[in-house]
Design goal:
Helix content: 25-40%
Shape: globular
Structural class: alpha+beta
Largest sheet: 7 strands, mixed
Length: about 170
């Protein structure tokens, strides 16, 4: 059973392998990270860990039993009880409910670990899979997302007002 774990230094090789293996798949629905991302991976990864340590962001990976990464689930700009959610899942597990389960778990962790009350996420109009994940996880559309929010693609912002479930 895959497990959602907070990102740490030891995840770096599996995260890089995940990003490389799924680069073409991701580029079909979201903006490509570009060669610089991979050329500077170690520096960017360490910067992410520093942001997490500072409480600015919280990064999670969905780790398979064999240690490989099935997905990345991130909370950005933690401030005043709110954060932005971003996520991506491996092509090999897409369409199996993995993202929905992980987003629901991250919503729970957002409350109990990070004291958040509201999450926002943007998805492009052509990313129906992400729209389904957000809707199934309790997010509702709240307005348009401009292309600058989504790497040049128009879309919709979704919001989830979090409530700790018993």
């Amino acid at each position: 059973m895959p497990e959602l774990k907070q990102l740490h230094a030891g995840h770096a090789p599996a995260v890089l392998a995940f990003e490389l293996a799924n680069r073409t798949y991701f580029a079909a629905s979201i903006s490509d990270r570009g060669d610089d991302f991979f050329d500077q991976f170690t520096d960017r990864y360490n910067a992410s860990l520093a942001e997490q340590e500072a409480g600015i962001c919280a990064f999670y990976v969905l780790v398979a039993e064999d240690g490989s990464v099935y997905g990345r689930f991130n909370l950005y700009d933690l401030e005043d009880g709110t954060a932005r959610l971003g996520y991506r899942v491996a092509e090999r597990v897409a369409g199996r409910g993995v993202a929905t389960v992980a987003v629901r778990e991250l919503c729970r962790l957002a409350v109990v670990r990070h004291g958040l009350r509201t999450l926002r996420a943007a998805t492009s109009h052509n990313n129906a899979a992400s729209q389904r994940v957000l809707t199934k996880a309790g997010f509702v559309p709240v307005g348009p997302a401009v292309p600058a929010d989504l790497g040049g693609k128009p879309g919709t912002w979704y919001q989830h007002d979090l409530v700790l479930q018993p």
